[in-house]
Predict the structure.
Amino acid sequence: MDYILSLIGPMVEGTAVTLQMFFVTIVLSLPLGLGLAMARISRFAALSGAVGVYIWLMRGTPLMLQLLFVYYGLPFIPYAGVTLPEFPAAAVAFVLNYAAYFAEIFRAGIQSIERGQYEGAKVLGMTYPQTMRRIVLPQVIKRVLPPVSNETITLVKDTSLIYVLAMNDLLRVTRSIVQRDFDLTPFMVAAVFYLAMTFVLTWMFEKMEKRYAVYDE
Amino acid sequence: MKKWIALALAAVLVVSLLAGCGAPAKKKIVVGLDDHFPPMGFRDDKNNIVGFDVDMAKEAAKRLGMEVEFKPIDWNSKEAELNGKRIDMLWNGLTITEKRKENILFSNAYMENKQIIVVAANSPLKTKASLAGKVVGVQDGSSSIEAVEKEAAVAKSFKELKKYPDNVAALMDLKAGRIDALVVDEIVGRYYIAKKAGEYAVLGENFGSEEYGVGLRKDDKDLHAKLQKVLDEMKKDGTSAKISQQWFGANIVK
């Protein structure tokens, strides 16, 4: 028991890194994903096509490869190359990747709203942006909550990929302890940490789903 | 008159500030290490990076009049980290090998190390020859791989050379019976074996000895010369021996 207690300190430090990565990604990728979804269903074929290619690239290659590319690859690109420190590099890769998934979730949500509602809004004299904001998006939020909650929980665990940049997130801290003590107990403790984080998220999404249930007839 | 003096002083100040910006004397060195590599560099229970090499680097930096920062890296990416200038030195039980010399400028060797063969305590394997047809583990990106491959005939006789992300994973697998033997740096291997008394055995034969050195960027000749001087001094005045005594209970510095 004393041993487990001695693990808490370093693991809390690791959890802080995990949570920072998580929040930065969520806060930036959700709006970016929504923007991409709008662009994807746009009438302008060039825009829609470009976003289509982007989503294909981001979903079609491993997140770990994208991480390695942003961190190690970018500095060696002639002229445009930038050398990012590890946290910004990881954030760029995570945001770009998750935005692609969120874009597809939002697109599905938007396209699930019947055409009749757009026509109704038009009859009432609303413009396209007004229709989106007042009629379509509130319903979309309700419909996409379950898949968004899925992705969000996956993100908590995906953050552990930043170990390839040697960032000390929860899982890497745990691994260092296992390396030092040659004992597997820290992995169990880490599992409890992850479960606690996903429990809070699950609970929050349940509450949100109840709140948005008012849009049910 | 006073005004002129004040003006002149201000001008001197500005010029010296600008000069300071123009040619920043490098005051900090970033040492890259795998913080999963006890006892050379690892985390203590307060999550601080500690170890033999860490103490050596701190002492060397102090003598160089530079600050030192320890940056954990993924050991497989050490050359990219060094050449991408994210770190200035590799100081973490880095074995000097011909292959690595292509990308890394090494200091003189400061410690000798053997590549030992670890087996389960109850294993019937006793010699290198008995490893024929067996699965042998190594840490990926480590010099153990080169040491094994240097003895091509022996390496060829293995059923498989399995590469693990770290030595603990390999030792666990050795205990679970998925591999029959592990080739590992003696300094690291002995550290782990001591933690699990009676579970592992070390064979009499090994895969040769090698040397640890500090790795720098190829074009960093200036720092290389200064560091070598400091390392020589540390050896001469017994500081290295003292640090070695602290970590290994003996002076094993070369």
